[in-house]
Amino acid sequence: MPAIDTTLVRRLVRAQFPRWASLPVVPLPSGGTVNAVFRLGDDLTVRLPLTASGAGDVAKEAQVLASLGCLPVAVPAVAGLGEPAQGYPWPWSVHRWLDGEPAVEGRPFAPEALAEFVLAVRSAKADAPPAYRGGPLTLLDRATRDAVEELRRTDEPFDASAALDVWTEALDAPTGPEGWVHGDLMPSNLLVHNGRLTAVLDWATAGIGDPACDLIPAWNLLTAATRPAFRDAVGADDAAWARSRGRALSMAVIQLPYYRGTNPVISANARYVLTQLGCRSARRASTGPRGSSGRAPNTSR
């Protein structure tokens, strides 16, 4: 496969969408691991999947967005669907540009707008497949406990005992009715303007699942000062709140050992989550072998 760069994007656009051939192509920085994203002129973006597993997201995202209908914030609008060509092996897409800056953990953010969005998605009535991460927490138990042990052996300031307490509480929490969830409300998928949510990206993870999936921004984005307003606005009971803590913890402990040397955006967010959950200890954990499985965890897009 050729390098995914501006030269490839120009060739693909020129061959398949000649009306946009004269537009400048600029790579966009991203902490994502599934798509390379480029700005095309002022009004468009090009998204090229980085892996075969991500290639199926192109069609799924379009289907999901068509099912959901109107939402209180902007969502991606497909302007064109590209085909494999120029040595690039997978489908790709062109979307309309969405204004806003990616959210950053710990910065000022209006929780009420986020809650309004979560509730709007949850109220959708259309049929949908299972959400990418929406299944029972028990399915994540072995991977989460293994990741806690792996992280404990690193030089990260990590409180494994506190992490396991969070995880056990989440596993013990009763489950409730499933519903529509976005499933990947990482800060990089949330666009903001003046601290207010304006758009939500990356819908390939959406579907039917545990509503606690979409409460994770309480821990990966919000602060202790704004978290209660978000919880009140979404009406999260104790069980859903505990499950959201567990889901946030699971993602963070799996992501951090794997990405801390390669993806500073994901690593920083994982550390923020662990801090918010009270799992970052004041002193460093015992140092030991850092080893990695060498397999990308199934947690970040």
UniProtKB/TrEMBL annotation:
A family per Pfam: APH
Q: Where are the transmembrane segments?
A: none
Q: Which Gene3D superfamilies match?
A: 3.90.1200.10, Phosphorylase Kinase, domain 1
Q: Does the keyword Transferase apply?
A: yes
EC number(s) for this protein? 2.7.-.-
Please name the top-level EC class of this enzyme. transferase
Location of the Aminoglycoside phosphotransferase domain = 29-245
Which range is the signal sequence, renumbered to this chain? Answer: none
State the Gene Ontology terms under molecular function. Answer: transferase activity
Keywords of the record: Transferase
Residues annotated as coiled-coil are none
Please identify the protein, giving its name as recorded: Aminoglycoside phosphotransferase family protein
- Source organism per entry reads Amycolatopsis heterodermiae
